[in-house]
Specification:
It is a single chain. By secondary structure, this protein is an alpha+beta fold. It has a two-stranded antiparallel ribbon. The protein is globular, with a radius of gyration of 15 Å.
């Protein structure tokens, strides 16, 4: 996942984990489910169950995930995995490297959101609100 998706959407970690390819429009993202601590469910609030407008460059960056591979060390060996194993309409956008299943919310937080905040010298805000506050700070800086 790249910082663009985290910063410019303001989605909660559980909403990122539940994002499917059919949720990605030409200039929008639809939030209609979430994946949190192993459970699927509706978004946290009624306001979150929505379609949000996003810049087309964000959508382009999301689609670029389909062509990426990552290298994972396994002892002395290095294994290569496709970032997106399957991109059918009902497949997840963010997939586990080995299984293609959903990413754990804590992995998204630790591997992507916290590093994005640190790279911008922003203090860390705990829990799901960190994503929204990070996004709000970026949007205010851009205006």
């Amino acid at each position: 996942m790249n910082k663009t998706l985290v910063i410019y959407t303001g989605l909660r970690v559980s909403e990122l984990a539940g994002l499917r390819w059919n949720d990605i429009g030409a200039s929008s993202i639809t939030i209609d489910e979430r994946f949190c601590r192993g459970d699927w469910g509706a978004p946290k609030s009624e306001a979150s169950n929505a379609t949000i407008g996003v810049n087309s460059c964000v959508v382009d960056r999301i689609h670029r995930l389909k062509g990426l591979t990552v290298e994972v060390r396994a002892g002395n060996a290095i294994r290569k995995y496709k970032v997106v194993k399957s991109d059918g309409p009902d497949d997840l956008v963010l997939q586990g490297v080995q299984s293609g299943g959903p990413l754990r919310d804590n992995n998204i937080l630790v591997r992507f959101i916290k590093p994005a905040a640190r790279s911008m010298d922003l203090p860390w805000v705990p829990k799901a609100e960190g994503t929204r506050q990070l996004s709000q700070v970026i949007h205010s800086l851009l205006q």
